[in-house]
Amino acid sequence: MRNNKLIAPLALAAAAALAAGVATLMKKPAAAASAPAASQAPSVPRTRLVGNYSFISGFQDAVTVEMSMDYDGEKYSFVVVEDEFPSYSSDSHVAVVYGEDFNMQLEYAAYYKGEDFAAHVKSMGEKYQGITPVRYGGVEGVSFIDGDNVCLALPIPNDGNSYLLVTLMKNPGYDEEVTTLPSHPDVQGMLASLRFAIH
């Protein structure tokens, strides 16, 4: 009889603990469901860096042009080099963006005497095939094929002496045609961020 009196409270306590445990287990899935799925979690922002390249434009009325461009520092590197250019250049220095799919060379190029950008594009039509209009942000230019590369000629706002020549070079791991590079999302993003200052 004494044992029954002792067992009854213990059984009640065990039943209460079991009920609490079941209630806790039932709450866990609801809490888990409210947590964002891995695919919905916000992505870690990429490292945004700014590359700078400056040059002298013109002769008698020479000015300094400063170009800057945003790029993803996790995927690309930006350097200004004075030799061993990825693509031939007669300039003293060029800017180069190195990446997995492509490399990009940016350099200044002078108009011929008496030319402006429209006249330059017209004369390019006699030398290059497949001249196509392109637009990146507020800059409108043209693309054309030069050997194994795609080049872009982009006018520099408020500079009547020089334009920006961009050479896009496909890397071995890139499966698409080189002609797709002007519309590559990263090319578009970088070139749409171009900024120029003239001093």
Radius of gyration: 31 Å
Roughly what is the average pLDDT, rounded to an integer?
83
The end-to-end distance, rounded to whole angstroms, is: 103 Å
Overall spatial form: globular
| Number of DSSP E strands | 10
Helix content: 10-25%
SSE topology string: HEEEEEHEEEEHE
User: Helix tally?
Assistant: 3
Percentage of residues in strands: 35-45%
As residue ranges, the low-confidence spans are 1-45
Largest sheet: number of strands, sense, barrel closure? 7 strands, antiparallel
Question: If strands are numbered along the chain, what order do they take across the biggest sheet?
Answer: 3-4-5-9-8-7-6
Tell me what the structure shows.
- By secondary structure, this protein is α+β, with helices and mostly antiparallel strands.
- Helix content is 25%, strand content 36%.
- The chain contains 3 helices and 10 strands; from the N terminus they run H-E-E-E-E-E-H-E-E-E-E-H-E.
- A 7-stranded antiparallel beta sheet has the order 3-4-5-9-8-7-6.
- A hairpin with a 2-residue loop joins strand 7 and strand 8.
- The protein is globular and about 45 Å long.
Summarize the entry for a quick read.
With 199 residues, this protein is an alpha+beta fold. It is 25% helix and 36% strand.
What are the SSEs and their pairings?
Layout (H helix, E strand, L loop, with lengths): L1 H33 L13 E10 L5 E10 L4 E5 L12 E5 L3 E9 L6 H8 L7 E5 L2 E8 L2 E7 L6 E9 L14 H8 L2 E4 L1
